[in-house]
Design brief:
Chain lengths: 341, 341
């Protein structure tokens, strides 16, 4: 906490488009924030140019924003540690930083994925690595395309924490005139909503790449949200979360956006690109690819039927052609919208 | 029923884009259908050209489809009467046809609106005018953009009827390889979902006309669905319906589509057009305009807070400028996503 103002201090760990945009959100909310970048030259370039030319080139960053490649410097004195790394890298990095995270600091996930192998949500990984209790673990999730938020377009989001008071602190630290956070105590639902939407976005992309239009997209989104909700129920989430900003809201924004890497990846598959060649050619992570396997793993452990996740795993592995994916999903037996029982 | 095949016979009353596309859906499902057009020359042109040049010009209609401007001819022997008129015209037309509707025929709404003055759903108007019981009243609603369905793009929908057996008959009469109907016994929810989405689409259009992007649209859709669900709960609908194809699905398809008249109307408002001049210049009905007043009426009677419907009514009447509409909606007090209580 800063002595002069009593305000909380933040570290944002990860200088991709969303980490960078979120650091700007915090500063515009009056919360001092330091941005950690993995590469020394990237941190130096951000400080020199006052913008993130690599991932968010169109936006001038606030002059108060300082970037560093030294995790100890970024974390020093932080009350709130926001983490925006590729999901599958969280554990390794957090283990490295563990001695520099101030005791008592809150750890907040800006990530949307499930760890492969363990099938853990990001806050579960943070808890396991650091030993932090539920009152120190949070997540931010919602319809938040980084480039639009950085351009100060009005957006709503959810700040999730099991502990109500901690959630209110997160809300106060991030609310500004263009960014409107709602509190939600269902962190399980918020994290699942964000992770599964990347899988659904891949299927939406596949359908679009094949030339299908708005009806097909809307049907996939609707049925995708239904299977996300079934998974959430089995894991103790509140079903209402999936109808909210971190479920539906995020899903719609992602599936509509040409900015979504997951949707765009699916679109290329739908146009006939080979998934393995395509992945090898990309220099950014497509979260839905690894997460689709982890989610299917969760679904099997809990006995939940998730046909969309299953078909995406098969499309991404190259086992099913895009046309077969859609045909197989459409030809399931005729039934009521919500089976009884 | 046809003597030779035992199949149900259908009349589709209304030859706009959706009525015409739905007549094709029925014929492609093996259900003989006659299409009624309001104007004699329109019916004749459809029969002559084998297409509906006015509303669905790009699609060749099945040769079996016959159009007529004589309601008695269209209705003769019909087991299923689908109605696709502008919502505010339903009562007047139905009163005219009443003697020609075969006794026992099912009346199925393809419309998405609420009657002004009475605040009645379409199936309520049908019940009041004809005296039909719940087992003879149905509605079809879902993410069903007419032009995409006519092009045989795969789509899912809901056929709603309180009576399960009647719902299954509707499902069998309309299912074909590109059109996948799910049954749902919650006709109240299905009709409300379809009606309110046209109001939300106007606000989405306003935001887009002002230059806002995917985050803003996703936030409006999410909060709009939340207020639709609140209204539905107050009127005895099943909240799960709003998370399904007739709620969320239809809403997403409409809000994404340049084909939606409601969205396009909002977009023009967002660009600064005067609502009264704009309405006077259009030759098709914008359902959300009249329906927004009727829904607000319903909301007030039931004590439900519907800020989006209220702001759309004020924008459409010219009382609020588009920029004020968005500012007023964004600046409501900071709160939890789902207030306790």
């Amino acid at each position: 906490m800063t002595a002069e103002t009593g305000r909380l201090r933040a570290a944002v760990m990860g200088a991709g488009s969303w980490g960078t945009a979120f650091a700007k959100v915090l500063i515009d909310a009056g919360t001092p924030a330091t941005l950690w970048a993995r590469r020394e030259e990237h941190a130096a370039a951000i400080n020199r140019a006052g913008c993130n030319a690599t991932y968010l080139s169109e936006v001038k960053l606030p002059p108060e924003l300082h970037a560093t490649a030294d995790p100890a410097e970024a974390l020093a004195g932080a009350d709130l540690v926001f983490i925006a790394l590729p999901s599958q890298m969280l554990r390794t990095h957090l283990q490295r930083w563990i001695d520099d995270v101030p005791s008592g600091a809150m750890l907040v996930s800006l990530m949307k994925g499930i760890e492969t192998g363990t099938a853990m949500r990001m806050s579960e990984v943070m808890a396991e690595v650091t030993g932090a209790g539920a009152e120190r673990l949070g997540a931010v999730s919602g319809p938040n395309l980084a480039h639009e938020i950085a351009a100060e377009q009005p957006a709503a989001t959810v700040v999730a924490c099991t502990d109500e008071a901690a959630g209110l602190r997160l809300q106060a630290a991030s609310a500004n005139p263009y960014f409107r956070p709602y509190t939600n105590q269902d962190i399980v639902g918020c994290e699942l909503g964000g992770a599964v939407k990347n899988i659904i976005a891949i299927l939406v992309g596949i359908a679009e790449g094949m030339g299908f239009g708005d009806n097909t997209r809307a049907s996939i989104i609707t049925r995708g949200l239904a299977e996300t909700t079934r998974l959430g129920l089995a894991l103790g989430a509140d079903p209402a979360t999936f109808a909210g900003l971190a479920g539906l809201g995020d899903l719609i924004a992602t599936c509509a956006s040409p900015q979504s890497r997951n949707r765009t990846f699916g679109e290329q598959l739908g146009r006939g690109r080979n998934p393995h060649e395509l992945l090898a050619s990309l220099d950014q992570v497509v979260e839905g690819v690894a997460t689709s396997r982890a989610v299917l793993d969760l679904a099997r452990r809990t006995g939940v039927d998730m046909p969309i996740a299953e078909h995406v795993v098969r499309a991404v592995s190259g086992e099913l052609e895009p046309a077969e994916v859609l045909r197989s999903l459409m030809s399931r037996s005729r039934k009521p919208e919500r089976p009884a029982g």
